[in-house]
């Protein structure tokens, strides 16, 4: 198995490599600038052509004869009693020596620069590797905290948080996003647990009614026909209630799977069909149905409108009124339902869209508390929104906004 390089090791190697490349580039640039500014030997070839160093051939091991050196010393000291030809040779030899010395000094300086810079770069690269190791550890410390928080998080314990401080950089944003995700998961799991508990309670209620009705009749030695018929009616009502609840729960479950049907629909036509099939009791309906085309599942859109109308009828006052409006506003299809009824506190509106949440206690009212939750789920499924607000004088106004078809 190939050895696994950790992120810290890879970052350290990357830092070291970048430092090495930058240091090598700096040495090359420095070498080039120094080589360009040091004196160059330009006339050495011409000097050789005139055999300026010919006298040196007469010496031993390439060293000029002593007589020539003494004569050159006299020339350099300003003596005038020297053969003009020898003076010329001495001056040329002196110039040649300057050139050769400059070349030697230039080569030695450049060579010294190379090996000293190379040693310095090697030592600095080693220090950079050590520093890179610690810097990489410091940079990855928030990631380690994320890892610890992720390992500590579970379905039953979502209280772990990174809570990273410091400047708001990319790692801080990542940590904050992770904390936000954990908070959303916590709310989701808690909502799921509440939903399951509430659904169990709601389903247990009709079952309890059926069991009680049956037990009362069975406890009598001879039940009369009226008692049997009464039991049957109680059981049928409980079954219908359980069926309605199960249908609502299945609607919510199907909505979580995404939209499977997308057909052109008109909210005005949907609302009109819903009114034709709804018992308004003694409520008076005021209609303003303008074309509101959209695209979606006709069955779900009808269920959305039916829930809104049912709530407007159910939570209305005796002989009250309700208003049903459809229109197209700012490129969106609108469906708005309003009703008279008890005053609704503004702070309680948000809870009405949660499953099994009612304005009053569970025992008050005859609904399941799923109507507006299903409306919000269907609207979200179709890419729309739901907005509710209290009406002046009591009641509620609910507006559904969907993309125009």
How is the topology of this model organized?
Layout lengths: L6 H31 L6 H6 L16 H11 L7 H69 L17 H49 L6 H31 L7 E4 H10 L7 E6 L3 E4 L1 H17 L6 E9 L2 E8 L9 H4 L18 H11 L3 E6 L5 E8 L2
Helix pairs in contact: 1-4, 3-4, 5-6, 6-10, 7-8, 8-10
Model description:
By secondary structure, this protein is of the alpha+beta class. Helix content is 59%, strand content 11%. The protein has ten helices and seven strands. It has helices at residues 7-37, 44-49, 66-76, 84-152, 170-218, 225-255, 267-276, 298-314, 349-352, 371-381, and strands spanning 263-266, 284-289, 293-296, 321-329, 332-339, 385-390, 396-403. The chain has a five-stranded mixed sheet. Strands 1-3 form a two-stranded antiparallel ribbon. β6 (385-390) and β7 (396-403) form a beta hairpin. The longest helix has 69 residues, at 84-152.
Report the order of strands and helices. Answer: HHHHHHEHEEHEEHHEE
**Fraction in helix:** 55-70%
Distance from first to last alpha carbon: 58 Å
- The residue ranges in which pLDDT falls below 50 over 5 or more consecutive positions are 43-59
Class from secondary-structure proportions: alpha+beta
Number of helices: 10
Provide the residue-averaged pLDDT. 81
Q: Any idea what the shape is?
A: elongated
Keywords:
405 residues; five-stranded mixed beta sheet; two-stranded antiparallel sheet; 10 helices
